[in-house]
Design goal:
Layout: H1 41-57, H2 59-68, H3 88-94, H4 102-128, H5 133-157, H6 177-191, H7 209-221, H8 223-227, H9 232-245, E1 271-275, H10 292-296, H11 302-305, H12 319-322, E2 337-338, E3 340-341, E4 352-356, H13 357-360, E5 372-376, E6 378-379, H14 402-405, E7 410-411, E8 429-433, H15 434-446, H16 457-465, H17 479-489, H18 496-502, H19 527-532
Antiparallel strand pairs: 1-8, 2-7, 3-6, 4-5
Length: about 550
């Protein structure tokens, strides 16, 4: 179903794709006007293309990095200087990032780009499209995409400036987080009547009514974090709209892993809104790549997965997060991990690497360090420093030997794509899934909301667990056990930072992190944005460079 990209082709669209990192506006830089382009239904769709291309651009990069390696879900240590990259990744683990961190800057630029391009497309289509249902739906879809981007900014930075008019290049101060919350809520509610009530091929990759309801549910569940006021009953009501639609269902145990395969797409029953990826879709000015295998598959396992490239394998998980998967051997979700001794695809032939004794262990002290040494690859759960002075621990460099490269279990939920001729993968990435609807409703009830539709927290959780494990269903559920279930269900799907903050766990200690400053729940406003927009004020805790 990757053909979706043909509808969003940018080759015909002669619209300048320049964007502002703080004004959130995109000027038209050619002579194209509505009396020339767009003039028909095909061209109207093409006009929306830059918004969707931009959204997939950094979804699996800036969004993934910022939401996952800032938690106990994933860690990106340097190994012999590899992947040190100005300490950008390491800082996310230690929570000592600054306004100059490249990941935090990319996240701001990317969401700003989506917002600016949405403003541009809305302006063009408001003038070009004839009045009617098609126009109302198209504009509402674009406003929903803009709302998603503002939700991401609000969640990550707190107070951010609101720009909704194309051509507004003023330097605006930040709106409060509560004001941004209310803006997103209003936009989604106004869009819902015009959004499609259909789910499947015809709407795949674009928001429908239930995308808006699901995002509202997500906002309401986190409302106390965002605004200081709980909205649990509103969360339940939004979840119920998705449930009552009858369009979605929990994938069975036999198809859970397939949701994340390179062959996934609109046939997946849980996908409410997913980001489509296609290695053949090349768009100038956008990243648009999904590189999970490059980061997660050990270099030694290239042959096992038949990859056309050698993966870099810098990304691991931490024992604290993997502990959520250790108590149920019957859970299909355990199979998303690479752990322990490694074998080829036949499951029998050991994966071996031939090096030297010194190449295997840089701290080997024998006189025969150059002697040939062959070993079976075994991934260790623990990630440890070996021989580094205490003052260098903050560098987070494990060393450049085989022991270091095999530290940490790896996640292959987004299964390596052997069909791609590049590092880019075909796997579409879900943003909102039906299992999240059920778990959000269960949590909202546990937090004091009123149960509806005959649902209880335990019935909702067991609806998912009955499709994930053959173990006995649960007889009770608490907020803690529900949190652990969310860890299992949404590993590597960019929701863990959001969850940790809501459950009060983001300030905890894991791995080598000891920071407990609650102000780090928000990222700093990037230096580049502050320079471009003098009206912006830095977030608390960062003004002095902390």
């Amino acid at each position: 179903m990757k053909k979706i990209f043909k509808y969003f082709s940018l080759s015909i669209l002669g619209i300048g794709l320049l964007w502002s990192c703080d004004n959130l506006d995109v000027p038209i830089t050619t002579q194209l006007t509505p009396d020339v382009f767009p003039q028909n239904s095909t061209q109207y769709i093409q006009t929306t293309g830059p918004v969707y291309a931009a959204f997939r651009g950094e979804y699996s990069f800036a969004w993934w990095w910022s939401q996952s390696i800032s938690t106990d879900e994933a860690v990106m240590p340097a190994r012999g200087g590899n992947w040190f990259d100005g300490r950008n990744y390491i800082a996310m683990h230690f929570h000592d990032w600054t306004a100059d961190n490249g990941i935090i800057g990319s996240l701001w630029d990317w969401t700003s780009k989506v917002i600016g391009l949405s403003n541009q497309a809305i302006s063009i289509l408001n003038k070009a499209m004839p009045e009617g249902a098609d126009k109302n739906t198209t504009i509402s879809e674009l406003k929903t995409m803009r709302a998603i981007a503002y939700f991401m900014m609000m969640d990550s930075y707190g107070d951010v400036p609101l720009y909704t008019e194309y051509g507004d290049f003023s330097s605006r101060p930040k709106s409060t987080r509560k004001e941004v919350f209310e803006f997103v809520e209003k936009e989604l509610k106004e869009a819902i009547p015009n959004l499609s009530a259909v789910s499947g091929v015809s709407t795949y990759g674009r928001p429908n009514k239930y995308t808006a309801y699901a995002l509202l549910a997500k906002m309401y569940l986190n409302a106390e974090v965002y605004t200081g006021t709980q909205r649990n009953n509103d969360c339940i009501a939004a979840c119920d709209e998705v449930i009552k639609s009858g369009l979605y269902a929990i994938e069975g145990r036999s198809t859970y892993l397939q949701m994340f395969y390179p062959t996934n797409g609109p046939q997946m029953k849980e996908f409410i809104f997913a980001v489509p990826y296609d290695p053949s879709a090349s768009t100038v000015g956008f990243n648009g790549n999904m590189y999970h295998a490059r980061y997660d598959v050990p270099r030694s396992l290239r042959a096992r997965f038949g990859l056309p490239f050698t993966p870099s394998a810098p990304r691991s998980t931490l024992p604290e997060f993997y502990a959520n998967f250790e108590n149920d051997v019957n859970d299909i979700r355990n199979k998303q991990w690479l752990t322990g001794k490694q074998y080829l695809a036949d499951g029998v032939t050991p994966v071996t690497v031939t090096t030297t004794k010194k190449g295997y262990d840089a701290y080997y002290t024998g006189s025969d360090g150059g002697a040939t040494y062959t070993y079976q690859v075994e991934l260790s759960k623990q990630i440890t420093y070996r021989g580094l002075p205490a003052n260098l621990v903050g560098l987070f460099d494990l060393g450049d030997d085989e022991i270091a490269w095999n530290m940490g279990y790896r996640n292959i939920k987004f299964y390596p794509d052997a069909t791609s001729t590049s590092r880019n993968q075909n796997n579409d990435v879900p943003f909102l899934r039906y299992s999240d609807i059920l778990l959000m409703k269960a949590e909202a009830i546990l937090r004091g909301g009123t149960a509806t539709l005959g649902d209880t927290p335990i019935s909702l959780v067991n609806t998912i667990r009955n499709n994930r494990t053959t173990s006995t269903p649960w007889t009770s559920v608490t907020l803690q056990t529900l949190y652990e279930e969310r860890c299992r269900e949404f590993a590597h799907e960019t929701w863990h930072r959001n969850d940790m903050i809501r459950f009060g766990k983001f300030e905890g200690a894991w791995g080598f992190k000891t920071d407990s400053n609650v102000k780090h729940r928000l990222f700093p406003i990037p230096t580049g944005a502050l320079t471009l927009n003098p009206a912006l004020v830095q977030n608390p805790n960062y003004a002095t460079g902390n």
